[in-house]
Amino acid sequence: PPSSSARSSRIKRIRASAVCHFTHESVATSFGIMSIKTIDAKSLLKPGQGLGGEIDGGYQSANGNGKGSAKIYGKWGKFDALLAYSGQTFNSIRLGGGERLSPNDGQSHSALLKLGYDINDRIRIDFGQQFYLDENYRSSVPQKGPSTYHCSTCQEQNVRQDESTLHLTTRNEQGEEDGRLTLYRTKMASKQVPNSMDSNGGSTVLETYGFDLQKSYFRNFGLFGRHKFTGGVNYYRDFYTYTTSGSNTPNAQQQVYGVYGQDEIKFRHHVTLSPSLRYDRYNTFPEHGKGLSNSSNGAILPKITLSWQPTREWMIYLSWGKAYNAPTPAQSDMDLTGNQWFANFVSNKNLKPESAKTYEGGFTYTKSALFSEHDRASVRATGFYEDVTNLIQEVAIGRFNGKYGKNRPIYQYQNVGHATRYGIELHSNYDIGNWGFDLSFSHIRVTNARTGAGLYSPPDKVAADMRYRFPNIGLTLMYSLMAVDAQNYDATIIRRRPGYMVHDILATWAPPRKPWRINFAVTNLFDKEYSMYKMASTNVDFPEVGRSFRFDLSYRF
Q1: pTM for this one?
Q2: For 27-54, what is the mean pLDDT?
Q3: Assuming Cys at both sites, which of 88, 114, 324, 432 could form a disulfide with 67, CB separation 3.0 to 4.6 Å?
Q4: In sequence order, what are the residues at sequence separation of 6 or more whose Cβ sits closer than 8 angstroms to the Cβ of residue 498?
């Protein structure tokens, strides 16, 4: 069972990193979990292949983005290795409606080394080292001009992230993974270079050390089901270091640890029961001399899930559990005041951890030959409801007049004593012959249960795809639509946004038995001018990327 507090911290780092060019990712939703696995040689090599590689390059017109990458990987007996590199350059962005965001100049580089060794058929050890560097020069507070959003303050910023991981994996006699030890260290540093237009400068560093140890046991008790019991412990410690000019945010450390156990019980008639229990605890240690005291809290988190597959086509599940999210030092201790900033932040030393009771249910339905001998349909629906105590929300608590205009926001992270959060997600797919259709819908609402005020929650969204395949030549054509409803119910009015629709067209050509592949796309086909709904509106609003032509060519050997 994943730790809620650990999950939020890890997702925060993942979103900040471009190293995910080298990862396989599963679907993540607001009420699900995120599973990310870094690619390795064994996942890329075909059966019987000993050495392989891939090179690709591409271009995107909206920001003059040129990119290239290369991978080489191989297996020699019990040893396998992978080396990968990706780099790109970019400049000013063409926004929806034709205006430009300038400057936006920079480059980024990322690299990955993976080494693996099969000690025997049941024990494997692997090591990974990732590196990412982003150097850019862009406007920290864009100001609207006659034909461009330009600099009122331009900032040179360098972001570097390094991550080291070590895995030890064991399998039982049936080949099922039954044990894993993970050790990891991540460091992400963001440095702002002082400039002539403003005295701002400094750096923010987040460094993490952690481990996760788990072991699974398989037992069959006949009428009492086939059991897979998994127990484990995880721990990580974050080190926050701030040197930003004018910021009073103290350096701090936070440790989070948990102990967990889960029993996955498979009964007859395709019924599975999965009870689990974990204990999470966090401790925060602000830097001495700032007048702050340590904070500590913990929670016992039970969860139970029941699933049933009455036929090959249907699967139904229900679950109940408790979730927990610890406040980070950046949320509780951020203190940035002064009229030279585009927004102010006020610390909240009394910020409490967030906890919730979660109810979730859903089903999947898959059927072949539904209307014809050559079709296949699937529907997946999920719904959840959460009763949340001390929900952590970023709230606009006031306004100030400063360098970047009047009525600039003052933000603070606060607890909402009692809130409700619910949502549904639907996805359907239908394939017939060479045609394919996908339709998805999501609806999420977060409300202050005591006042009825709308809190931060993304607007309703519909996504639809239609594609046609030419299998003889390996060509696929696709049209994609994303329709987002207006977000006009957030109590923080500055965050509200009108609705919008964005259209894309895409083509992929991968000729059969050929080692190369070509991708072409036109995104935001009608050059729609729109702004996305965001957690905080610290900057002057400006549109998202406008119409862009994209081209990629890859060659695999």
Answers
A1: 0.84
A2: 72
A3: 88
A4: 486, 488, 530
